[in-house]
């Protein structure tokens, strides 16, 4: 996988630089300084001396008295180790961290512990002389926008420099953090910001594997130096986290790993990668970090064939999940789809088949999987179990992925068997769980609750193929939107950006582009980026339908300091904007075959692209309501199809391009004209509307 990325970067080096660098939020180096003063308290002076661009002024921040403090704003979410220079010879200074402005405090940080009602204590340095101070490695803070500096001594304290060593993307060189392989730009600045915020979110959740969630109290006999592959044999245990927060657990092998969150949940979860992995593929192409994450799950596979709910150390409790088991299998297919690396699949194939057979073993006489209570854990939803529509849509998708992988491994017999089982699920699920009067699937046959996840996955998985039914699902999901986005009724009082990312794909698949763009603008741009409580740069893991910053209906406080404001599973718009609005779709691994099918909506122009191991793919289009102009570029040696949308509501148009000068064409039911058998290379098409 490292070779694949090197190939892509070499290709980019030979071509023009990736455009639209001004939108990239990743820093140009690993040294980051604050950009503004957010708040100050008590007696102090020269608080602006530590801002970016002013450190060379020769002035120092001076905190005159005990408990005087200043809060600095980095303008975006960052993560790493705080460093500072002091000219004082003695004293004590504390630092607190917060992702959201509501947790800015001179007494506490927001919380990194997953359980309980807790706040983290300040990071304290006792000054023993003038000079530079840095924390131990385990005191990395994975994500924060605000840092508060507090004088904890009796005498004045002076600091003449303060910076963060940016820790994300540890396997990339310091000057390469902005070396994206993909891009997106449109005439809508909200969409542009969302795409790049998604890219940056995934960078912040790509971490050093030795900086995973803390294990503070370790049971006797647990040797953290044993290979990751051996840890699943250890007995289950319970530990009590210490409020003295640390990041000190090695969660997998390698030099980088894709995890769930930046501040909290620095663990491997397979479900997140259903969103974060393809979003990474079209932005940084950092497949190796996802591969390391998936490797850790496959190394922890139980003898039954099932994968753990999450990676080390969560696996030590032998906690399992039907859906997250399937997400792990799908993840291998996703890596293959974007890399074309058959050897990678071959190395996983025996364990992949064992895992698939465990999933197949949950199918009962109805033809559907019957999810047991022991495997009912999921993303945060309730009611998983029985003949659940989300679980069965995921199983349907996993079986179809398995059939495709089986062909690459010369295992056609098992692939054909999985195809037949998928067809049985499709034949059983729709008549049992579809509610025609509602236009949505019910969660299972014992309820009328229509879940967001199951309905979105019914479309995404290909379980539903009828365009009318897909449109019904899209319309019914949109009808439930509230002021803060798309609700997930299967999780009480929750808006889930994770599941809403799949809902986005439903609207695009239904060719309801306006609905999809409206959801991105209102939920991701206006709220998740624009709300003053957010980071202005990364996407939150979830929140209340009221807009309150809590994601757990049982949490006793009106806001939850544990909430992560940088979560890779919330980056769905990044892949959707590239795939549907840019229209670039890989039909076979690495894009050996492809389709370019732009969706216009209310946009006037779009420029999108990315690279795989085969080369660069791009789609650049513009329209004025009468004329649609499209330029595409795909690698030589590939082939594909182009679905040219007719502008406005025109039913016929004059097409120019690929030796079709002035040809009159008519649209299909989705308003497109298809050009098949297009060889890789550079092509230009112009469509002029003729009649409505």
Automatic annotation (TrEMBL):
InterPro entries: 6-hairpin_glycosidase_sf (IPR008928), 6hp_glycosidase-like_sf (IPR012341), Bac_rhamnosid6H (IPR035396), Bac_rhamnosid_C (IPR035398)
UniProt record, GO biological process: carbohydrate metabolic process
Protein keywords: Signal
Signal peptide bounds: 1-17
Single Gene Ontology MF annotation: catalytic activity
Keyword check for Signal: yes
Domain (Alpha-L-rhamnosidase C-terminal) ranges: 583-646
Pfam families named in the record: Bac_rhamnosid6H (PF17389), Bac_rhamnosid_C (PF17390)
Gene3D superfamilies on file: 1.50.10.10, Maltose phosphorylase, domain 3 (2.60.420.10)
Residues annotated as domain Alpha-L-rhamnosidase six-hairpin glycosidase: 255-479
Entry keyword annotation includes Methyltransferase: no
Identification of the protein by name: Alpha-L-rhamnosidase six-hairpin glycosidase domain-containing protein
Organism: Ganoderma sinense ZZ0214-1
């Amino acid at each position: 996988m490292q070779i694949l990325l090197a190939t892509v970067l070499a290709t980019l080096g030979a071509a023009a630089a990736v455009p639209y660098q001004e939108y990239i939020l990743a820093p140009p180096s690993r040294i980051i300084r604050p950009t503004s003063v957010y708040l100050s308290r008590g007696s102090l002076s020269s608080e602006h001396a530590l801002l970016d661009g002013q450190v060379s002024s020769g002035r120092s921040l001076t905190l005159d008295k005990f408990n005087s403090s200043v809060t600095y704003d980095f303008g975006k979410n960052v993560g790493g180790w705080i460093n500072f220079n002091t000219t004082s010879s003695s004293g004590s200074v504390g630092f607190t961290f917060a992702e959201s402005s509501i947790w800015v405090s001179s007494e506490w940080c927001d919380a990194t512990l997953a359980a309980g009602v807790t706040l983290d204590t300040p990071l304290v340095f006792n000054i023993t002389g003038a000079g530079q101070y840095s924390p131990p490695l385990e005191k990395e803070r994975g994500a924060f926008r605000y840092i508060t500096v507090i004088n904890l001594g009796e005498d004045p304290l002076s600091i003449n420099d303060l910076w963060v060593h940016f820790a994300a993307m540890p396997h990339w060189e310091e000057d390469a953090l902005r070396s994206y392989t993909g891009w997106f730009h449109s005439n809508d600045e909200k969409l542009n910001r969302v795409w790049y915020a998604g890219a940056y979110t995934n960078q912040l959740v790509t971490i050093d594997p030795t900086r995973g969630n803390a294990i503070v109290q370790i049971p006797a006999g647990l040797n953290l130096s044993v290979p990751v592959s051996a840890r699943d044999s250890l007995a289950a245990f319970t530990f009590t986290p210490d409020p003295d927060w640390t990041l000190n657990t090695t969660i997998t092998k390698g030099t980088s790993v894709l995890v769930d969150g930046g501040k909290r949940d620095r663990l491997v979860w397979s479900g997140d990668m259903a969103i974060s992995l393809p979003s990474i593929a079209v932005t940084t192409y950092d497949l190796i970090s996802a591969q390391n994450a998936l490797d850790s799950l496959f190394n922890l596979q139980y003898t039954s064939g099932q994968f753990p709910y999450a990676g080390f150390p969560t696996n030590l409790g032998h906690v399992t999940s039907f859906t997250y088991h399937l997400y792990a299998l799908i993840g291998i297919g996703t890596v293959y789809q974007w890399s074309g690396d058959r050897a990678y699949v071959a190395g996983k194939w025996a364990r992949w088949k064992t895992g698939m057979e465990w999933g197949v073993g949950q199918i009962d006489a109805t033809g559907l999987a019957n999810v047991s209570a022991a495997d009912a854990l999921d993303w945060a939803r309730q009611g998983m179990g029985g003949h659940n529509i989300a679980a069965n849509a995921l199983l349907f998708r996993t079986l179809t992925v398995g059939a495709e992988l089986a062909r690459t491994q010369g295992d056609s017999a098992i692939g054909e068997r999985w195809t037949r089982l998928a067809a049985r699920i499709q034949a059983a699920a729709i008549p049992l769980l579809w509610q025609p009067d509602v236009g949505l699937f019910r969660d299972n046959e014992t309820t009328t609750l229509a879940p967001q996840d199951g309905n979105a996955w019914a479309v995404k998985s290909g379980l539903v193929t009828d365009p009318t039914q897909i449109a019904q699902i899209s319309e019914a999901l949109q009808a439930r939107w509230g002021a803060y986005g798309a609700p997930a009724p299967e999780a009480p009082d929750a808006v889930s950006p994770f599941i809403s990312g799949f809902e986005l794909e439903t609207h695009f698949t239904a060719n309801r582009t306006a609905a999809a763009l409206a959801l991105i603008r209102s939920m991701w741009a206006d709220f998740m980026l624009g709300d003053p409580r957010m980071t202005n740069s990364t996407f939150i893991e979830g929140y209340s339908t009221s807009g309150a910053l809590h994601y757990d209906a049982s949490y006793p406080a009106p806001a939850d300091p544990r909430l992560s404001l940088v979560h890779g599973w919330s980056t769905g718009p990044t892949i959707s904007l590239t795939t549907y609005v840019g229209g670039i779709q890989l039909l076979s691994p690495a894009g050996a075959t492809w389709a370019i099918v732009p969706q216009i909506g209310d946009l006037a122009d779009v420029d999108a692209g990315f690279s795989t191991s085969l080369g660069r793919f791009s789609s650049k289009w513009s329209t004025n309501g009468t004329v649609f102009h499209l330029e595409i570029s795909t690698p030589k040696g590939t082939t594909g199809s182009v679905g040219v949308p007719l502008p406005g509501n025109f039913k016929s148009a004059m097409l120019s391009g690929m030796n079709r000068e002035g040809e009159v064409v008519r649209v299909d039911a989705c308003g497109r004209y298809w050009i098949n058998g297009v060889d890789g290379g550079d092509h230009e098409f112009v469509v002029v509307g003729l009649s409505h």
